Amino acid sequence: MHYYIHVTEASRKPEIALPAADSLIKLFSGVAHMVHMSSHEYERFGYYSKGVDANEKADKSLVLYDSLAKGLFPMVHVPHYYSVDAFCAFSGAMYKKAIQKSMTCRNSITPNKEDMYAQYLYMFSELAMVRLGKWQDILSDTTFINNEWTYAGILYDFAKGMAYTKTGNQSKAEICLQQLREKKNDKALHEQFDPNSSRPSDCATVAENILLANIRFQQKRYKEALAAFQTAIASEDILTYSEPKDWVLPARQYLGAFLMQLGQMKEAESVYREDLLWNPGNGWSLVGLHQALKAQGKTSELQRIRKQYMNSFSDAEVIPTTSAY
After folding, report:
1. What are 39-57's pLDDT values in tens digits?
2. Could you tell me which residues come within 8 angstroms of residue 1 by beta carbon, excluding any fewer than 6 positions away?
3. 251-325: same fold as 1-108?
4. d(C-alpha 235, C-alpha 251), whole Å
5. Fold for domain 1-108?
6. Residue-level pLDDT at 119
7. pLDDT at 234
8. What is the dihedral sign for C-alpha 284, 289, 292, 297?
């Protein structure tokens, strides 16, 4: 069951392993890694609350292990557990939990110049804020970023830039974009996070172009915005599958939201359906698809889609009203 989830989770039909995920929790309730593995399946199909619950149960087992024998469990796994937990929380619009779990993840790692994956996990709280549109929280954020942490700095510039453009300060958003681009010159970004992961440079290109597209859209330079979204999508599509993903804010969700603002409902529908091939069961794309179909008077799927995204956001503080803030 463990390996069945690994084999199927990157596919476009990850739901075939849902029974395996449920069984792992029941059959191996005291084995942290087995319980955690179920969350890979749950987050992949939009069962975010179940993903959080699974990781919280796994965390309790880790605490028990540590109380019985210090160092018994390989600590290399712990940041991974925390990052999947945080991802499930902010994907499920559980903001307070997302920040708490992101900070737990941050405190479990020690970033350095070479370890860009640790830098990525260090910035999960800022990515959670972007996901949930907490612009004022981002603007007041004073997270410490060492000047040698290039990738963390890129994500920080991305978050700040998004907050500035969304709150109407385009000049400061442009400054953040320029700072991000300067950091992208670091050649170390072209090395993979690890042999089985993506290159930070590709993830940085997604961040750069989502930010650029948002700025240009606010400036009503729509053609440039749409072109930037296409660049972001192309870069996102070549990323290696990982848990959590090496880029956690799907570019198509931003594109779909802007197409809807432009009144291009049919095009938005197509974008959301495409994203749901890449991210089956993702609640944010389901919200967007529901809105696009409803705006076109297409009603046959609405009840099913609403039921599915309400399940994704069953523990949300506020149900999202758009596919991307």
Report:
1. 999 999 999 999 999 999 9
2. 17, 20, 21, 23, 24, 27
3. yes
4. 10
5. 1.25.40
6. 97
7. 98
8. negative
Tokens for 88, please give them.
Answer: 């499930």
Q: How confident is the model over 272-295, as pLDDT tens digits? A: 999 999 999 999 999 999 999 999
Q: Please give the Cα distance from 163 to 169 (Å, whole number).
A: 9
CA-based nearest residue to 288, from 314, 317, 250, 315: 250
For the chain, the first-to-last Cα distance in angstroms comes to: 37
Q: Angle formed by the axes of helices 222-237 and 251-261, to 10°? A: 160
Task: Please state the CATH superfamily assignment of the domain spanning residues 251-325 in this structure.
Answer: Tetratricopeptide repeat domain (1.25.40.10)
CB burial class (10 A; 0-12, 13-18, 19+) of residue 219?
A: middle
Q: Tokens 């010159």 identify what position?
A: 185
Q: Quick one: pLDDT at residue 60?
A: 83
Question: CA torsion sign, 123 to 125 to 131 to 137?
Answer: negative
| Nearest CA among 116, 161, 118 for reference residue 138 | 161
In order along the chain (325 residues), what is the average pLDDT of each group of 10 residues?
89 90 90 89 94 90 74 67 96 98 94 95 98 98 95 98 98 98 96 87 98 98 98 97 95 98 98 97 97 98 97 97 97
Asked if 118 contacts 112 with a C-beta cutoff of 8 angstroms, the reply is yes
* 92 CB-near residues (< 8 Å, 6+ apart): 48, 49, 51, 52, 283, 312, 313, 314, 315, 316
- Pair 292, 253: CB distance under 8 Å: no
> By the 8 A CB rule, do 268 and 229 touch?
no
Q: Residue ranges per domain, the chain?
A: 1-108, 113-222+245-249, 251-325
